[in-house]
């Protein structure tokens, strides 16, 4: 007997600060004006996506002491944007990245519980730790926490927030339909938490929200991150978009669930994915090459090379050869607040490898950056892309994808109009929302139902 087809989960990432967005395209819109967020969200909801996702930038990036101005400067506050989007959408989930390193549990729990009420149960929290001292200067003396302490704080942060969410028990709260007042016992909302990182007690002032708790997302790929996801998350963002790597990550994380009393259906694996569509596969391949060249201008290529060389390379021609000088490994890094700083652990070895690649392929600096950077995940005709996405999900390389278009706000529209209908025809993606909350969309149980089930067993 054949295995039933898995249903695909799809989400949309409004990119923000990144190396994906093509700013030179005349169709590129503002990342500050609300109309851009509204268009993007409405497209995702029209296509029956599970949720919209916002990342979080907590400091403007710098390079060589100057604001890094090759991508968007500034980003509106996550909660403000999501609350506004709750008013212009009805079913789409609203996911925000909020750091556990630079916030406090009471504040974050209150904000997410409020968002869940405002959206009728559509909120989700991507729990992250913040690693660099540069960003940390905005928040704390000393800048940052060591990795082991960041994850320790994150685990306790989430556990404390859950205590706050659960301080109002669904079984004990009844609203008076005439007055709207909550009839409850005196302990509802009371909390006491004493731990390594937090020592708080008081009264949580937001009643139990429609989902009980926001859906929890996690993005770390380290050993600590995988364990954190298996123990506490509802969904995990994977960076593995190839079939083989995706299957390995999927199997590893899902197999960790049992020791926490959880099943495979309790955690979704959702890689980020970029795409380029064309009328034919060949046309899409040509378009993808052009998009890559638009994403990596000459100035961007030089800046990217400076991540590795840790030197001012502004005098070099991006269409010329790589520098013959070696990276500077002795000084403070030229780039501040960028994840790329961590990507190249051995700059001297990376420089040697890149020189060999450039010589073998006759690549300029710009050619090298284009060809060694991230390529689009899905490239082809709508039929090819729909088939490939379905193949990944049915092969347990993921449970779906978080799509990151290279144009905002309208870059999601072609996927919604051309690929989604094909997935619907295959019977692997919804044609209508069947529930109202994000937990409904993702097939996740309500925390109150889980609590009752455990109490009865």
From TrEMBL:
The keyword Flavoprotein applies. InterPro entries: Diverse_substr_monoxygenases, Luciferase-like_dom, Luciferase-like_sf, NTA_MOA. It comes from the Bacteria. It holds the Pfam family Bac_luciferase. Belongs to the NtaA/SnaA/DszA monooxygenase family. FMN binds at residues 97, 151, 222. One of its GO terms (molecular function) is monooxygenase activity. Keywords: Flavoprotein, FMN, Monooxygenase, Oxidoreductase. PANTHER family: ALKANESULFONATE MONOOXYGENASE-RELATED, C2H2 FINGER DOMAIN TRANSCRIPTION FACTOR (EUROFUNG)-RELATED. Gene3D superfamilies: Luciferase-like domain. Residues 24-395 form the Luciferase-like domain. This is F420-dependent methylene-tetrahydromethanopterin reductase.
């Amino acid at each position: 007997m054949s295995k039933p087809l898995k249903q695909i989960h799809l989400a949309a990432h409004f990119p923000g600060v990144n190396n994906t967005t093509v700013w030179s395209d005349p169709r590129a819109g503002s990342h500050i004006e609300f109309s851009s967020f509204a268009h993007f969200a409405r497209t995702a909801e029209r296509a029956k996506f599970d949720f919209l996702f916002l990342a979080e930038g907590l400091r403007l990036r710098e390079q060589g002491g100057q604001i890094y101005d090759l991508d968007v400067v500034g980003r509106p506050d996550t909660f403000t944007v999501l609350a506004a989007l709750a008013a212009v959408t009805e079913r789409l989930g609203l996911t925000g990245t909020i750091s556990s390193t630079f916030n406090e549990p009471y504040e974050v729990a209150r904000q997410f519980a409020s968002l869940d009420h405002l959206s009728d149960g559509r909120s989700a929290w991507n729990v992250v730790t913040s690693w660099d001292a540069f960003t940390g200067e905005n928040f704390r003396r000393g800048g940052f926490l060591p990795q082991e302490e960041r994850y320790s704080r994150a685990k306790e942060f989430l556990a404390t927030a859950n205590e706050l969410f659960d301080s109002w028990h669904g079984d004990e709260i009844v609203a008076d339909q005439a007055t709207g007042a909550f009839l409850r016992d005196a302990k509802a909302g009371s909390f006491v938490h004493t731990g390594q990182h937090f020592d708080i007690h008081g009264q949580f002032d937001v009643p139990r929200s429609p989902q009980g708790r926001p859906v929890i997302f996690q993005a770390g790929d380290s050993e600590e991150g995988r364990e954190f996801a298996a123990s506490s998350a509802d969904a995990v963002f994977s960076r593995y978009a190839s079939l083989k790597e995706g299957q390995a990550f999927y199997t590893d994380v899902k197999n960790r669930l049992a020791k926490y009393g959880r099943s495979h259906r309790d955690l979704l694996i959702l890689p980020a994915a970029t795409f380029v569509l064309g009328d034919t596969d060949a046309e899409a391949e040509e378009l993808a090459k052009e998009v890559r060249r638009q994403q990596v201008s000459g100035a961007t290529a030089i800046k990217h090379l400076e991540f590795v060389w840790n030197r001012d390379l502004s005098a070099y021609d991006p269409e010329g050869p790589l520098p013959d000088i070696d990276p500077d490994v002795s000084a403070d890094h030229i780039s501040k607040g960028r994840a790329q700083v961590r990507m190249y652990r051995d700059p001297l070895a990376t420089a040697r490898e890149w020189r060999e690649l450039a010589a073998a392929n006759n690549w300029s600096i710009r050619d090298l950056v284009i060809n060694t950077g991230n390529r689009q995940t899905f490239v082809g005709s709508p039929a090819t892309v729909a088939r490939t996405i379905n193949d990944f999900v049915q092969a347990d390389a993921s449970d779906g994808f978080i799509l990151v278009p290279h144009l905002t706000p309208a870059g999601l529209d072609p996927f919604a109009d051309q690929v989604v209908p094909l997935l619907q025809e295959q019977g692997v993606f919804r044609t209508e929302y069947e529930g109202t909350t994000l937990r409904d969309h993702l097939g996740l149980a309500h925390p109150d139902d889980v609590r009752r089930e455990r109490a009865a067993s």
